[in-house]
Write a structure and sequence with these properties.
Blueprint (H helix, E strand, L loop, with lengths): L23 E2 L5 E3 L2 E3 L3 E4 L5 E4 L2 H4 L5 H24 L8 H21 L10 H14 L3 H4 L4 H22 L2 H6 L1 H26 L4 H11 L4 H13 L8 H27 L3 H15 L3 H12 L18 H28 L8 H23 L2 H19 L3 H25 L8 H25 L7 H10 L5 H6 L2 H9 L2 H36 L4 H10 L25
Antiparallel strand pairs: 1-4, 2-3, 4-5
């Protein structure tokens, strides 16, 4: 009898007899048992003529496949996950609960990113998905009734944003080019310090004369706006690096490395100026009195001046957070230095540790390395906040991932793939939550207009000064222009610290300070709304046009295993007990 079915089944032993490995199913769902034909079972004929029965369900019913099967599976998994979480958390999964808000925000952000990616304009690359994610969070935050249902508490939002920040900085550290970093170390320092300081000073002057802010509050606003967003810059640089744009000159590495130092400087300046802004008048009069006594040359005056500068101590006047008082100017400056030194040292130690542990003889090496790297990164970010050194965590993560990549060499590719999968999950959460920080109803039209003037002036000065800072770095004019454009985006730091001044002002109960804090928050929101999408679009459009593409670098990266889109094996080439699968055509 001719057999035309291509179904196969696994073989089992029957009566202790040996069976071959090849089997062929009977066509048309018929069962051949001697001379009898049965239609409800399938008989598999093996080489020793022993019939083997299997269930007819998968053969007699037509199973869905393709997009329909994918949708059914995805929906079932989502409902199952929600059911399990609901059985544990209950009220948190109802409208108004944190888990419900996170799930809805995640789904809307993913859909928004997909929809934005579908927009295709002639001669232009696709829009970055983060634009749709930002808009999704913004809409959910400002639509009546939806806002109450999709509510996420501030501590939940901050925790998720910090996890996402740890993941993106880990990706940045894994993607750094050590040779380019050595060659561009001087340019990296100039790029991190110069534009941040100049923009903060420009915004302080403009806000003082246009918005009527005191000088110290002008610098508070300036340092809020001067921080570049790693969540926007790093993914864009990784995409350009993967395609070979600017790799030969080390431009992606330069921007990713300088971004972390830029953020530390901005946060340190913000914290210092905020402490001065909330310092009591008596403290500064006592300092002045001490200076006058020193000038007078009296020994008694010198001793008393030093005494009253430190007693009563500054931490007895205002609320403190972390290990240092928020209004201690010199301690805040010292804190910034300690964040740089401590973060670098901790990252160095952890990076060396993770190069050797887990060891090469352990099974599932890639998964263990990925878990260790991500776990230490998240712990560094959260631990630095608990210790009061919030800027050290990001730098520690960057240094640790960079050293780990150096130690692993070509084997870092599969780890990058795992970290990339986590970023696919937390990217919608990060930008959706950043968009959800923006409340349109709180924006005052007059403040918006004046704030846009301050923001625009600061951005123009920042672009020009960035162009000057990368002189003598070996870049041509087009590359300098691209670096200036890539140094524009603002999002994560502004969302994290933009409201701190307003929170402290409300605690003080001073209506004037509350107004200043609200002005700072308003301009920070405007910076997110304008520079995040414009910066992302600018990088995406200018990169392929202004940077030189080197196909050899792209090919070398793939050869070394740094391609993260399609890894051959999650376990990597050195994992034990895992053999590569060979596809048979």
């Amino acid at each position: 009898m001719e057999l035309d079915s291509k179904r196969y089944s696994r073989m089992e032993e029957d009566g202790g007899q040996d069976t071959d490995t090849k089997a062929v199913g009977v066509a048309n769902a018929q069962c051949i048992m001697g001379e009898e034909t049965k239609c409800n079972d399938i008989t598999v004929i093996v080489s020793n003529s022993t019939p083997f029965r299997i269930s007819p369900l998968t053969h007699c019913l037509t199973a869905p496949s393709g997009l329909l099967a994918y949708l059914i599976t995805t929906v079932c998994l989502g409902v199952l996950l929600f059911g399990v979480v609901w059985s544990i958390a209950e009220k948190e999964c109802y409208p108004g609960g944190n888990l419900f808000g996170i799930i809805i925000l995640f789904l809307c952000a993913v859909c928004g990113g997909k929809l934005i990616g579908l927009i295709q304009l002639p001669t232009l690359p696709p829009f970055p998905p983060l634009l749709g994610m930002l808009l999704a969070g913004l809409v959910l935050r400002n639509v009546p009734y939806v806002t109450e249902a999709v509510h996420i508490e501030q501590n939940w939002s901050a925790a998720l944003r910090n996890i996402a920040l740890a993941i993106i900085l880990t990706r940045a550290g894994l993607g750094l080019d050590p040779s380019a970093l050595r060659r561009l170390k001087a340019v990296c320092v100039r790029l991190a310090v110069g534009p941040c300081t100049v923009e903060a000073s420009t915004v302080a002057v403009m806000s003082h004369f246009l918005m009527g802010l005191p000088w110290v509050w002008g610098f508070v606003l300036g340092f809020v706006l001067s921080a570049v967003s790693p969540a926007v810059v790093v993914p864009s640089m990784l995409l350009l690096q993967k395609d070979g744009y600017g790799v030969k000159k080390g431009i992606p590495t330069l921007l990713m490395a300088a971004g972390s130092f830029d953020d530390i400087l901005a946060i340190t300046g913000f914290t210092t100026c905020l402490g001065v802004a909330f310092a009591s008048d008596s403290t500064w009069l006592n300092v002045l009195k001490g200076v006058l006594e020193v000038v007078g040359g009296s020994a008694a005056g010198l001793l008393l001046g030093v005494f009253i500068c430190f007693f009563p101590s500054l931490d007895q006047t205002l609320h403190t957070k972390g290990l240092f008082p928020v209004d201690s100017t010199w301690l805040n400056v010292l804190k910034g230095v300690l964040e740089v030194v401590g973060g670098s040292a901790a990252g160095l130690l952890l990076g060396v540790f993770i190069c050797f542990f887990p060891s090469l003889d352990q099974e599932e090496l890639v998964l263990r390395r990925s878990a260790m790297l991500l776990g230490l990164s998240v712990f560094a970010v959260f631990g630095s906040h608990v210790a009061g050194f919030s800027g050290a965590g990001g730098l520690c993560t960057l240094v640790m991932a960079f050293l780990a990549a150096l130690g692993w060499g070509a084997e870092k590719g599969p780890v990058e793939a795992v970290v990339g999968r986590f970023w696919d999950i937390f990217q919608p959460l990060l930008f959706g939550l950043v968009g959800a920080q923006i409340t349109v109803s709180t924006l005052d039209p007059i403040t918006v207009g004046l704030g846009m003037a301050c923001l625009g002036t600061g951005l123009v000065v920042r672009v020009l000064f960035t162009f000057l800072m990368v002189f003598f770095g070996g870049f041509n004019t087009k590359e300098k222009l691209f670096i200036s454009v890539a140094w524009l985006p603002k999002a994560t730091v502004q969302a994290a610290i933009g409201s701190k001044a307003l929170d402290m002002a409300r605690v003080s109960g001073d209506e004037v300070l509350v107004k200043y804090g609200l002005d700072v928050l308003t301009v920070a929101v405007l910076a997110i709304l304008t520079t995040a999408p414009v910066g992302a679009l600018g990088i995406g459009l200018a990169g392929p046009r202004l940077l030189t593409r080197d196909p050899e670098d792209t090919h070398a990266d793939r050869k070394e295993g740094t391609e993260v889109d399609a890894p051959e094996s999650v376990s990597g080439p050195v994992s034990k007990g895992v053999e590569p699968c060979e596809s048979k055509m």
